[in-house]
Amino acid sequence: MSNEIITDLENAVEKRRNFAIISHPDAGKTTLTEKLLLYGGAIHQAGAVKARRDQRKATSDWMEMEKQRGISITSTVLQFGYDNFQINLLDTPGHQDFSEDTYRTLAAADNAVMLIDAAKGLEPQTRKLFEVCKMRELPIFTFVNKMDRPGREPLELLDEIERELGLQTYAVNWPIGIGDRFAGVYNRRDQTIHLFERREHGSREAQETVISLGDPKIEKYLPQDLYYQLKEDIELLEELGSELDLEMVHAGQMTPVFFGSAMTNFGVQLFLDAFLDYALKPIGRQSSVGIVDPTYPEFSGFVFKLQANMDPKHRDRVAFVRVCTGKFEKDMVVNHVRTGKTVRLSRPQKLFAQDRESIEEAYPGDVIGLNNPGVFAIGDTIYVGSKLEYEGIPCFSPELFAYLKNPNPSKFKQFQKGITELQEEGAVQIMYSTDDFKREPILAAVGQLQFDVVQFRMLSEYGVETQVELLPYSVARWVRNGWSAVEKAGRLFNCITVKDNWNRPVLLFKNEWNLNQIIEDHPELELSNIAPVG
Length: 534
Ligand code: GDP
Hints:
The protein is an alpha+beta fold. It folds into three domains: 1-283, P-loop containing nucleotide triphosphate hydrolases (Rossmann fold), CATH 3.40.50; 286-383, Rossmann fold (3-Layer(aba) Sandwich); 400-528, Alpha-Beta Plaits. It is 29% helix and 28% strand. The protein has 15 helices and 31 strands. α6 links the parallel β4 (111-117) and β5. α12 (412-425) crosses α13. The relative contact order is 0.11. It binds guanosine-5'-diphosphate. Guanosine-5'-diphosphate binds at residues 23, 25-31, 145-146, 148-149, 261-263. One of its GO terms (cellular component) is cytosol.
């Protein structure tokens, strides 16, 4: 490998930043994404992402389903340039389309942006996604949104993050007033005040007025009470004393916090500039041969998401691969760890929203879409050169359970085939009753959409009309110390024992309360909400 290629690779890694946004529906993720793209010049007018989505023609049954439900099932990757950086924004499906893919996407991210509605603070979906970030020790950047609307006290919000998530906070900027009286933010990085101008929707980059804290003109711009309040707040923040500690940020122990209003573009650029300074570039990943640095010259990556049948004419599937090391080039022949075969990657795609564009090369931190005629499964490693395998992606704790029934015995074979393939692909988790007479699979999912997708695909791809019978459970725990521990524990109250696809014991509970009861009564059971990598 020539030095030139290595330098090329090092430069590419140095300039790449990759992140996912975690938030609860309605916090403003779509809006913030658009504004980030606007600054990145990837779109020229905000509103384009949504408009593009609306204009999209229904090219498949799959998209037909998306259209009918008015949602986007596809998790896409948006790549844009800003200030010499190549930024990859991994979109995590959020709303009704919440599914395991939302979690898996975080396995491909190097950083997370936690978006919070100033009036609501931490919400359930954000907390869940935070747990996954914490497990992966991802650096988390917090953006408190909708400051132009009435909201909670900033200190109270920081306190909530510290107390409930166990994350130290460091406010990089600080709001001046809120709601009707929102006047701007104080940027602690250079002691300047960025004034907020009220305007309707910010479709272009905002031109902000910036003055320094000591500037006598400040009185002209800020009402006196807000100015005094700000001075008091600044003093208080100094007294609180925490410094921005990038090591702690990178270890996922401290979160830099920003305040703004995505809808009006306010604070978005301040955020982006600071984010690029503080965020982690692609770093080494754990593998079967130890941690491999992204500048390792041979290509490797892993599959974190599969998208099925975007185009029914081709029955195509796309496997999304996170590039981890080396340079990816079109037509590359790679080794596929799980099957031991070689595969030529001839139709790589870059993804911008729904448009698929062919790519020639990609670098660590990027995501590529590969045509996948049933070869790839979630967690698969592909590599060139000496063998290595990345850690798999775990199964996340499902919260919805249902029997999937096949009322037509003559379709038994298709039914089995469908279930096996959808499970392998990671569309849904499958569990079984321990009662030998109950042969029907139990679908286990994190979002209702996964059930709909399974039924839809069972019919359209395997020709089997199925029925879903919901089960009254909402909490699952794997018993890490296995069947012998379950047997020893004897009768377990208020839960049922099932087995996952790898025949490992899983307990299902109606609620957390019942779970806590078992934890108390049976400390010998090692319960985990994440499956061992199968
Ligand atoms: P998502 O569900 O997280 O993608 O949220 P959206 O981006 O669709 O935003 C939800 C709603 O909040 C929309 O009506 C937005 O216009 C609105 N919104 C987003 N950001 C702001 C903001 O900064 N201020 C105000 N007032 N509204 C906002």
